[in-house]
Amino acid sequence: METARSDKFMVLRLDHGEDILGSISKAVASELSTMLIVAGLGMISDFELGYFDRGKYITKAFKEPHELLALQGSIASKGEPRVHIHATVANAEHEVFGGHLMRGKAWMSNEIGIIWLERVHSERTYDAEKKVGILHLS
């Protein structure tokens, strides 16, 4: 993984086979700010997308490489899961799929952009009624 950072922006470039969620978590591990994932492109393989339905994820796994059209999400200051990402992908037939990124690996290369939200604190906490972690801002 390569990283470059300015005051409020970071770009990650992942190599072939690197774990996307793990790499993002590692890159921001020491940060205590709220962040947004505003860009993500390249290709993805061995990934799983989820659709949240009444307290559980309905998942679908894909082994073959797909174009990574977009990544977007949030990174909480604290709480679990700290990283919450959705992905949009396309296969060789130009069919598009999307959902919560449960896992995935960079295929060839990925480029991911992250911005810091200055003076915005957040915590993701479990909401028993909704059966999901909800991001709270302060």
Structural features:
60s Ribosomal Protein L30, Chain: A, 10 strands, mainly beta, 7-stranded antiparallel sheet, 3-stranded mixed sheet, 7% helix, 138 residues
Per-chain topology:
Layout: E1 2-5, E2 9-15, H1 20-28, E3 34-53, E4 56-62, E5 66-75, E6 78-79, E7 83-90, E8 96-117, E9 122-127, E10 132-137
Description:
- The protein is mostly beta strands.
- It has one domain: 60s Ribosomal Protein L30, Chain: A (2-Layer Sandwich), CATH 3.30.1330.80.
- The chain is built from 1 helix and 10 strands; from the N terminus they run E-E-H-E-E-E-E-E-E-E-E.
- The strands form 2 sheets. Strands 1, 2, 3, 4, 5, 7 and 8 form a 7-stranded antiparallel beta sheet that branches.
- A hairpin with a 2-residue loop joins strand 3 and strand 4.
- The model has no long low-confidence stretch (mean pLDDT 96).
